[in-house]
């Protein structure tokens, strides 16, 4: 990684936002709840979009196009918020300019691209983290602690789904195969990531059912995964066709944990049979992005090149899992 800028030396991380779409708004809003960081610049393909975004959030600089943002010497870290079909190029561009990178999930559209990007990180001696913000949520961490403490006995099953109806637009990001469309990359990564968090190994078997939109991308998927070392079965689903319950259950032989809206997880609950034993609620002030932003800030201030909660190996594993679900040839 390039030598630390003044912001990193002083403990303040100076951020730039690359792409000013919907998810970038959540990032900018939640930055207000993170100490030791500030957003100094935003960039979009269209200059007026970047300017409007910057004005909305009191960001001092806006750029048309992304190269100027990457070359800005005042910026320490860049949040890549463009469509995932562009993540590889934009993250590489920022890394080559010596910036730390937080890249919105999924890291890229397939395992081969993720391998390429992580190799680029090593070549530039840079910092890269996939924005799997769910892993940093206090309720998810609390659920993991309960499992590790044996509060539900031996983990037997994981059930999780995530889906919202998406208006069909063959040219839009969700349904266009050229833009990395499909429910698995967009929403299905959340239940997959949850399963991996509790069972970090490749499943020995995957059984699945898919439904496809007219463009050929999957707009609904149900799958059953078996994790042999952990002796855990996972039932996962995702959908563009319907609103799913969006609840995760961690089921053990002595109890279970329910996590409503698990992808953003404001709370979780521990049950023994039908009895509610304990509840946890995080009382957050933002939307939940603030926890991952703070984690990246700590990494940079302490000189780490890789995050411990979402290491590169986890990003590669999730990419491999999605490739398997999408029946893609194995990457070399």
UniProtKB/TrEMBL annotation:
The keyword Oxidoreductase applies. It comes from the Bacteria. Keywords: Oxidoreductase, Signal. GO terms for molecular function: nucleotide binding; oxidoreductase activity. Residues 13-131 form the Gfo/Idh/MocA-like oxidoreductase N-terminal domain. Residues 140-257 form the GFO/IDH/MocA-like oxidoreductase domain. It holds the Pfam family GFO_IDH_MocA. Gene3D superfamilies: Dihydrodipicolinate Reductase, domain 2, NAD(P)-binding Rossmann-like Domain. Belongs to the Gfo/Idh/MocA family. This is Predicted dehydrogenase.
């Amino acid at each position: 990684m390039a030598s630390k800028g003044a912001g990193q030396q002083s403990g303040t991380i100076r951020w730039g936002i690359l792409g000013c779409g919907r998810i970038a708004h959540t990032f900018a809003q939640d930055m207000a709840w993170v100490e030791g960081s500030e957003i100094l610049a935003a960039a979009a393909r269209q200059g007026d979009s970047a300017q409007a975004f910057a004005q909305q959030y009191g960001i001092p600089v806006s750029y048309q196009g992304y190269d100027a943002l990457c070359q800005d010497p005042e910026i320490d870290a860049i949040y890549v918020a463009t469509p995932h079909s562009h993540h590889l190029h934009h993250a590489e561009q920022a890394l080559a300019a010596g910036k730390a990178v937080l890249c919105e999930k999924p890291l890229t559209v397939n395992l081969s691209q993720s391998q390429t990007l992580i190799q680029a990180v090593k070549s530039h001696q840079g910092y890269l983290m996939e924005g799997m913000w769910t892993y940093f949520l206090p309720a998810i961490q609390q659920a993991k602690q309960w499992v590790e403490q044996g509060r539900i006995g031996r983990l037997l099953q994981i059930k999780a789904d995530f889906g919202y109806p998406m208006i069909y637009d063959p040219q839009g990001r969700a349904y266009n195969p050229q833009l990395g469309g499909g429910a698995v990359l967009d929403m299905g990564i959340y239940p997959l990531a949850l399963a991996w968090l509790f069972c970090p190994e490749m499943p020995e078997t995957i059984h699945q059912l898919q439904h496809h939109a007219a463009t050929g991308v999957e707009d609904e998927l149900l799958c059953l995964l078996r994790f042999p070392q952990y002796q855990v079965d996972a039932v996962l689903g995702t959908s563009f066709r319907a609103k799913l319950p969006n609840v995760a259950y961690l089921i053990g032989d002595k109890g279970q944990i329910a996590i409503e809206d698990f992808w953003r997880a404001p709370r979780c609950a521990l049950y023994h049979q039908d009895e509610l034993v304990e509840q946890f609620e995080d009382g957050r002030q933002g939307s939940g992005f603030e926890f991952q932003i703070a984690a990246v800030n700590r990494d940079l201030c302490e000189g780490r090149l890789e995050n411990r909660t979402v290491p590169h190996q986890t990003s590669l594993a999730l990419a491999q899992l999605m490739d398997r679900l999408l029946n893609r040839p194995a990457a070399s």
